[in-house]
Design brief:
Rossmann fold, 7-stranded mixed beta sheet, 198 residues
Length: 198
C-alpha cells in the first residue's frame, strides 16, 4: 500500500489519508496529494522521479512557464505538480479511466481549474513553454514531430520512460527537431530522462 514518498529537494508525495506531521527541513518540500488509481505515476517509479526533479528545477530556476503540456498524463502527478505553481496545464491521456483518476488528483490538490484534460493533442498545434512526456520509448519516437511542434523555443522539454539504451535513438530523433535546444541526460537506477533546454 502506498504510504507516500519524499523526493528531495523539491517534492513530497502523499496519499489523501496521510497527515503531514513532521516539522523542520521537510517543510521546504512542495506537497503533492496523489490517490493511486488507473493512471501511472505516484512518485515511486524512477521515471516519475526524474520528471519531478526536472520540473522542480525548472520552476525554481527559470521564469514561471505560462503554459505546460503533459503528454501521457496518467495519474496527473506531473500536471498537478506544474499547476501548483499557478500555471495552466494541458494534460493528454488516452485512457479515460486514468483521466478520471487524474481529475480526482487535481481536485485533491485544489488545481482542477488549472488543468485541461484531453484524450488527444489539440490541433492546430500551439506552443507550450514546458513539455513533459513520461511515456514509452516507442510513443516518444512516434510522436516526436507532434511534440516538438508544440515546444516553445524558449522553454524546456522533459522526456522520460527511457532505458539507457533508448537514449541514442531519442537524441537522434529529437535533436534535429529541437536544434536551438541542448539536451541533458538525467539518470536514476536503470532509467533515464532527457531534458532539452533553451
Amino acid at each position: 500500500m502506498f504510504q507516500g514518498i519524499d523526493l528531495p529537494p523539491y517534492w513530497r508525495v502523499l496519499p489523501p489519508s496521510v497527515e503531514v506531521r513532521e516539522r523542520g527541513p521537510l517543510n521546504n518540500l512542495s506537497l503533492l496529494r496523489i490517490k493511486p488509481g488507473r493512471g501511472f505515476g505516484i512518485g515511486n517509479h524512477e521515471t516519475t522521479q526524474l520528471c519531478l526533479l526536472g520540473l522542480g528545477h525548472y520552476l525554481r530556476t527559470r521564469p514561471r512557464p505560462r503554459t505546460v503540456l503533459d503528454f501521457g498524463a496518467g495519474s496527473g502527478i506531473l500536471a498537478v505538480a506544474a499547476a501548483l505553481s499557478g500555471v495552466h496545464v494541458q494534460a493528454v491521456e488516452i485512457d479515460e479511466l486514468a483521466i478520471e483518476n487524474a481529475r480526482e488528483n487535481a481536485a485533491l490538490n485544489g488545481v482542477e481549474t488549472l488543468i485541461e484534460f484531453r484524450t488527444h493533442l489539440r490541433e492546430p498545434a500551439e506552443p507550450f513553454d514546458l513539455v513533459l512526456a513520461n511515456i514509452l520509448n516507442k510513443v516518444l519516437l512516434d510522436h516526436a514531430e507532434a511534440l516538438c511542434a508544440r515546444q516553445s523555443r524558449v522553454g524546456q522539454m522533459i522526456l522520460s520512460g527511457l532505458f539507457g539504451t533508448d537514449v541514442p535513438g531519442i537524441l537522434a530523433r529529437y535533436r534535429p527537431l529541437l536544434a536551438s535546444m541542448s539536451p541533458e541526460v538525467y539518470e536514476r537506477g536503470d532509467w533515464r530522462a532527457i531534458v532539452f533546454k533553451s
